[in-house]
Amino acid sequence: xxxxxxxxxxxxxxxxxxxxxxxxxxxxxxxxxxxxxxxxxxxxxxxxxxxxxxxxxxxxxxxxxxxxxxxxxxxxxxxxxxxxxxxxxxxxxxxxxxxxxxxxxxxxxxxxxxxxxxxxxxxxxxxxxxxxxxxxxxxxxxxxxxxxxxxxxxxxxxxxxxxxxxxxxxxxxxxxxxxxxxx
Length: 183
Hints:
single chain; mainly alpha; 7 helices
């Protein structure tokens, strides 16, 4: 099977199974990229996820384009991005009319409520798996092993309680990482 076709199938199938948008798709992408195809290890995927989250736009398309490019150059980026966008866009056009008419049906409401805990659990598992890479100390001469955790705490406080725009935390964490977490 050609590499481009494998990229299309990996990202297309993960995207089609990822109910709930970008964040719910990330664990499925990780499974395809790391476990099933071995295109990256968990650390590389975590770095790509962190970098992608620091940029504007949907995470699913950024990850697909980056991983596709890493695996098969520009052709891979285009194929992986197409696999993420085209099937869901076409399906959305077809199903949106149906869902609007059925959104008040109790069975449909129950299905939506039933899948929400699964999406939450998938995100919690991803966060748990990613934490071991996110909280690694840098090789700073001053030994700031607590710094990654402190960055996370400050970001949480800024966004959750002070209602700051997350972009300020992202920019600040990039600067702090550049200065103190170079390892």
